[in-house]
Every structure is written in structure tokens, then in C-alpha cells.
Design a protein that fits this description.
about 160 residues, mainly beta, Immunoglobulin-like, 2 domains, 4-stranded antiparallel β-sheet, 3-stranded antiparallel β-sheet, 2 helices, elongated, Small heat shock protein IbpA
């Protein structure tokens, strides 16, 4: 395993301690299970999709939960009828739990299944109060009050 020294990044950033700690921990922890495989893709400027290969699972055997900044997808396969004898099992049917760290203001807008793939759609919606805004610069000795998006500012 490779270990990256993130110390130079700590010196030039403010407020990203948690992010760097998570990256550092991910680099040093043992690789977990790769089951089930998944893709994360950007589908628009502020929209994303997680696609998981969950062949053999039904919708009622899957659970999707979003809590704070963690999206948890789990699957628990119901036992099949005991009247069948499986001679070879190549299709995985074990229970799983996969967690995704999601950024602030990202929310799940829907989930669907097709052809054994679970699609989870997410969107990032930044509140108006948190979006950047342009501040006009005035010159002179006058003290004016300007209205900037609902706030009164003295100049």
C-alpha cells in the first residue's frame, strides 16, 4: 500500500482537516469487500448517479438510507425455497452494506432498478444564502446604504 504525506496540504488550507483525515485513513485501512461493484458518475453540473450491480436482489430486499452525510445501501437476501438443491453457486447472494460519504447539500432524489442495476440519483442544491454573490465597489466619501440580496450594507 502507498502512503501519501498530506502535511503540505494542511499548511495551505483552512477547514479541510476532516477531509484530509478521511483521505489519510482511507489510504491506510485494509481494502474492504468489493461486493457489490458500483459506479459513481456525474450526470449534470450538480447531479450524480450511483449505480450498483445487485443482480439477484429484489426491490424489497434492498434498503437505501441517507442520514447526515452518509448514504447507506444494504441488501439482505431472503432465503430461497428449500426444495431446490444448488450444485454450484456462482451468483453471489450474500448480504451486504455499502456506505458512501456524501457532501453537504447533496440529497437523494430517487432510486430505481433495471436489469439487475440499482440506480441512485443525487443532486447538490446549495441554498441561496450560501451561493457566492457579487458586491459592488463604490468610490468617494459618501456613506450610502445599498441593498444586496435582502441585506442593508453601509458604504
Amino acid at each position: 500500500m502507498r502512503h501519501f504525506d498530506l502535511t503540505p496540504l494542511y499548511r495551505s488550507t483552512v477547514g479541510f482537516d476532516r477531509l484530509f483525515s478521511m483521505l489519510d485513513a482511507k489510504g491506510t485501512e485494509q481494502q474492504g469487500s468489493a461486493y457489490p461493484p458500483y459506479n459513481i458518475e456525474r450526470t449534470g453540473e450538480s447531479s450524480y448517479r450511483i449505480t450498483m450491480a445487485v443482480a439477484g436482489f429484489k426491490e424489497d430486499e434492498l434498503t437505501i438510507e441517507a442520514k447526515e452525510h452518509v448514504l447507506t445501501v444494504s441488501g439482505d437476501k431472503h432465503p430461497e425455497g428449500e426444495d431446490r438443491e444448488v450444485l454450484y453457486r456462482g451468483i453471489a447472494s450474500r448480504a451486504f452494506e455499502r456506505r458512501f460519504q456524501i457532501a453537504e447539500y447533496v440529497k437523494v432524489i430517487g432510486a430505481s432498478m433495471e436489469h439487475g442495476l440499482l440506480h441512485i440519483d443525487l443532486i447538490r442544491e446549495i441554498p441561496e444564502a450560501k451561493k457566492p454573490r457579487k458586491i459592488d465597489i463604490t468610490s468617494g466619501d459618501k456613506t450610502e446604504h445599498k441593498q444586496i440580496e435582502g441585506e442593508t450594507v453601509a458604504h
